[in-house]
Amino acid sequence: MRCTVIGTGYLGATHAAGMAELGHDVLGVDVDPGKIAKLAAGEIPFYEPGLRKMLRDNLDAGRLQFTTDYDEAAAFADLHFLAVGTPQKKGEYAADLRHVYAVIDELVPRLTRSAVIAGKSTVPVGTAAELAQRATSVAPAGVDVEIAWNPEFLREGHAVTDTLRPDRIVLGVQGDSARAEAMLRELYAPLLENGVPFLVSDLQTAELVKVSANAFLATKISFINAMAEVCEASGADVTVLADALGYDARIGRRFLNAGLGFGGGCLPKDIRAFMARAGELGANQALTFLREVDSINMRRRTRMVELITSACGGSLLGANIAVLGAAFKPESDDVRDSPALNVAGLLQLNGAAVNVYDPKALDNARMVFPTLNYATSALEACDRADAVVVLTEWPEFVDLAPAVLAETVRAKVIVDGRNCLDIDRWRGAGWQVHCLGRRVA
Ligand code: UGA
After folding, report:
1. What class has domain 2-196?
2. Does the global pTM surpass 0.85?
3. How close is the Cα of 217 to the center of ligand 1, in Å?
């Protein structure tokens, strides 16, 4: 099949390469010529395991091309994916939909044949129906444009696997849809043959699946972090608690890791946009709990600073702190709303000298926080440290050798913000260990 993918950010670039990998002819479209030139040359402007190879393989095979030209996009295919960003509006909770509308306004008037536009971006419920009306009003005479919604659930760091082996495919279609389901079934045929569940719904349900999935994940993380607060107050151990809860199949262990909480470009903004949309719909009471989910999550960052302060003997003034991790999670170079970077900034604000190391996110971190010190290795960051703080659970940090690190630090004090370290190993090597949600003697 042929399809375009409009918007070649994280989501779009991955989807374009993924669809080409399934054997389709794909045209990636973006208004940013710099981004397009990079992708066409086989480079991705962010870190994502396996994506560069998939991109290059498919460029080489001639199944994948990139352009900034909407005329070319309109002529290329009858199936267009919309994968532009929907950031949080400045000073508001709501999502900024200007890029989504711009795609409809640019693409639809150029269409010469009937087409399906399948949205992948995360949007407030009701957006797809509005886009359908807009598309009808700007379509040339005789050109029928269907809007469908096909939300994306991929995780950064696992984007390639999530695209080629998704948990499920959800497709929302218009009430009078004639083509969308058949087209998408054909496109995803290799996945469907492998047994991936395919759910078809109306547009609103498909839009809601995405935001409610992220709201649920955020709630699960904040639930265990709320339990961590109670564990801290009562002397219990949140990691044992999470393991014990997780054996109940109805609860499950995944996404029950207590620590510094969630960040990134999705969960925080999505739960806020969801609250804003529920308010507009008159259903704000239904989601007031998400405000609490957000507060619990943000409290973890201040709690972490308190824990580090007490690990340093009650004051951060003049303390030399090694911060290991800047990305919002491992296997990513993304620092958007990163709890790690946030804590690093707060430590500096409280008078500490902060030396940050991250295997992939240093360049991005430097752009956001140019005043922190950046090291080129974990060992360098730990040079004469009064405390070593692990804020992103990169395997490299989990595997650090306590004896080696002991040679370079000023004090053998380590604070685990992600409950990812083998505490016995560190304590056995004479380190003082501090954790969120568990008391370590
Ligand atoms: C999230 C969802 O997991 C994806 O399904 C969704 O497609 C994506 O948002 C999106 O909307 O585009 P992502 O932001 O890549 O994916 O990251 P997650 O793996 O969900 O992690 C989010 C944050 O939660 C990270 O900061 C992570 O450290 C934190 N987290 C995760 C915890 O604190 N504890 C956990 O147990 C799990």
Report:
1. alpha beta
2. yes
3. 7
